[in-house]
Design a protein that fits this description.
2 helices; about 0% strand
Length: about 80
């Protein structure tokens, strides 16, 4: 393997690793927010109020997973490691 091939393979490997971390965070947060949504639906069902806003929990999980992913990228770049 020459240097260019190693660099491309490293880039693809890092991208795959970062996307795996992103989707792992998303899955965790979607389950977490989904549990709260499910609990809210059960509580409101006692008062005969329908609540089916599971898509909001998924959008929240997508956005927060992206924020966490960006923060981890910035930390791995070294910009946050210079703090106290």
């Amino acid at each position: 393997m020459n240097g260019v091939t190693k660099e491309k393979a490293g880039w693809k490997h890092r991208l795959a690793h970062e996307m795996l971390k992103y989707w792992g965070n998303f899955l965790y947060l979607a389950l977490f927010f989904g549990a709260f949504t499910w609990y809210r639906r059960l509580i409101l069902a006692e008062y005969r109020i329908s609540y089916l806003h599971y898509s909001v929990a998924i959008f929240e999980a997508l956005i927060l997973a992206k924020v966490i992913w960006w923060a981890m990228l910035c930390a791995s770049a070294g910009s946050l490691k210079t703090g106290p």
